[in-house]
Amino acid sequence: MSISFVTNLILAAIRMAVPLLFIALAELYSERAGMVNIGLEGLATVGALAGFMLTYLTGNTWLGILCGALAGILINMIYAYATVTLCANHTVYGMAINLLAPALASFIYRVYFGEGSSLMQITLMQGIGIPVLKDIPFLGTLLFNQTPMVYLAVALVIFTGIFFGKSKAGLNYKAVGEYPKAAATLGIPVIRTKYLSCVICGALAGIGGAYLTTCYSTTYTEGIVSGRGFIALAAVIFGRWTGGGVLLACLFFGFCDALQIRLQVLNIGIPYQFFQMIPYVATILVLTVVGSRKAGPQANGKPYRKEER
Amino acid sequence: MEKLRKSLTTFLVPLLSILLAFLIGAIIMAGLGANPLTAMYALFKGAFGTSASVGTTLNKAVPLIFTSLCACFAYKCGVYNLGGEGQFLMGATTGFCVVHCLGLTGLPGILAALVTGTIAGGIWGMLPGILKITRGLNEMIISIMLNYVATLFMGVIYTSWIRDANMPQTPSVDDSLKLGRVISDMRFTWALIIALAVGLILYYFLYWTSSGFKLRAVGLNMTASRFNGFPVKRYILISFIVSGAIAGLGGASDLLGTQYRLINGYGSGYGFDGVAIALIGQLHPIATIIVAIFFAALRVGSTSMQVSTGVPTSVSDIIQALVIVFSVAGMALTKLPEFEAFRLRLFSKKGKEEVNA
Predict the structure, then answer these.
(1) How far B221 CA sits from the closest chain A CA (Å)?
(2) d(CA A134, CA B231)
(3) Residue A141 above 80 pLDDT?
(4) Per the domain annotation, does A35 fall within a domain?
(5) What is the pLDDT of residues A179-235, one digit of tens each?
(6) What range does the domain containing B260 cover?
């Protein structure tokens, strides 16, 4: 247990937490407007593919991230139309997205790169050190020498905290998730807010997926999201539907993920799959300890019909 | 009459969704430079062209029937079991380990594998059920997490504990354990008969027994059921256990019927496919079986489509996903008040014309 082992572990934990954080924030914005979206896994998958392909074609990781966001929005608009306008069951439709999006992604990948092609690779986004701060021993390497996406994620968490806690727009947004009818009588555009929440959700989940290919793994493989979309759902519950809470939850799950990779490398005679189980088992244990305690937006997952009383 | 109209809509929506999905599939095929009609013909011929291909299709349908009935049963009680894949794999893994480690052969071995597989699936399904009723947890997240755990556990078996020499897979089960064919020149085995029997039993239970009625009542309105004195939590737990047990039995049957060994990628996607199939089948066990066979046909057919026309098999995955995307949206559409108004206007107009004539 040297200091470099600990530093590397925490570094890896932050790297693993960031995609989760984007996806969990996507769900936070969605659920704050009453939209339970369990299609995050699918949205992140198309985001990962779009990010990979654009970076492969242009060599620019930023375009990849942008394209990931757009792909996420595009797919999530199907969900938005079906659940907001047609009042379809959120859970069921999220499942439909989880089936459609990966099918689409693997189809596009196979058609473009050929069925049995060798693994295509891209160069990852480079880390940017913040001058002066990055030279602080220990903390400097951990916090101030990361890819811009890490800073972006942190900025997003701070923004989310201020938006939902202090701003009028944020309170209006939350009202839609708590009690849409009351919100409507106050002149808050409920339907428009719900659509907006789906745009934000699609974009952030897409960015989370694109992070995996452009900042983490260099290749696109099927199942690259590997359950992060569902762990993100747990992170929102664990984080009590607040930006800061979600950040802590994601750091915890990121730590579990980093830990399991380190333990696999140690090679101590236990089948490596047992270590791979750690993030999933941790999710179950954390939820069991936290319990549900009826938190979260009141009208979460309920359809909103304008004319209904 | 009203009931007839209603069942007509519930029947029409999936049918139209399938047609629409195939239409988009055809556009994709044309976009890839293939003749959609030739490709579609190759697809259907590959799935149903000969008695051998019908047998292959039916065989392919077995795991899907099990996982879709698993999803169907839980939904009927109003809970979402997205863990069909994990329960299926736990069934297959446990069944395999029991016969392998005890060295059982013949009929006792088959029975042992099926029974222990069912129990293992039931236990795996019980976990999210218990956590839901005692801690109020979201059963979807828990059951999905358990899918990953089950897949990894199977990985432990075939890469470390019961490994077949150099290959990352287990040895095959004993020949005497393999389920035989029902008809000698068709590939489907007794596993299909087990699957169909489970479907019929579920249908009987859900629609012809009082417990089944109560279970459906819990699914339709949990609050009302609680006020009527139904033990809601017990029904939820039981539905999870039974649902898991169905998937577990499926895993064990498919292992002895087709798969014979545990290997990387086995069972991947079966759980979510099952959910999709159950939803398209409108949560009716018999309709679910038919949709499962249809999905299996798409899969079998798409392989021969790829061989003869070069259209990749993943097109059929997209068609499948579109069927569920359209049918769920379509069912929601028919429940909208605007649609109801439109339908009434349509029918009353017709009624007027009839009166005039």
Answers:
(1) 15
(2) 60
(3) no
(4) yes
(5) 999 999 999 999 999 999 999 999 999 999 999 999 888 888 888 998 999 999 999
(6) 54-333
Residue range A50-105, pLDDT digits in tens: 999 999 999 899 999 999 999 999 999 999 999 999 999 999 999 999 999 999 99
Is the residue at A222 inside a domain? yes
Contact across the interface for A271 and B279, Cβ inside 8 Å: no
Query: How far is the C-alpha of B62 from the C-alpha of B321, rounded, in Å?
Result: 20
Rounded to whole angstroms, how far apart are CA atoms B134 and B132? 6
Q: Which residue type is seen at A66?
A: L
Please answer yes or no on whether A280 and B160 come within 8 Å at the CB atom: no
Contacts of B31 in chain A (CB under 8 A): none
CB contact under 8 A, B332 and A91: no
Which structural domain range is residue A180 located in?
10-114+147-290
Per the structure, the count of domains in chain A is 1
Region A18-28: mean pLDDT is 96
Query: For residue A296, is pLDDT > 90?
Result: no
Closest to B173 measured CA to CA, from B103, B107, B115: B103
Q: Which residues on B lie below 8 Å from A277 (Cβ)?
A: 148-149, 152-153
Angstrom CA distances, B293 to A97, A99, B39, B177, B290, stand at: 22, 18, 20, 25, 5
Within a domain: A263: yes
Residue A87 lies in a domain: yes
More confident residue, B339 or A288: A288
Subunit contact B320:A92, Cβ cutoff 8 A: no
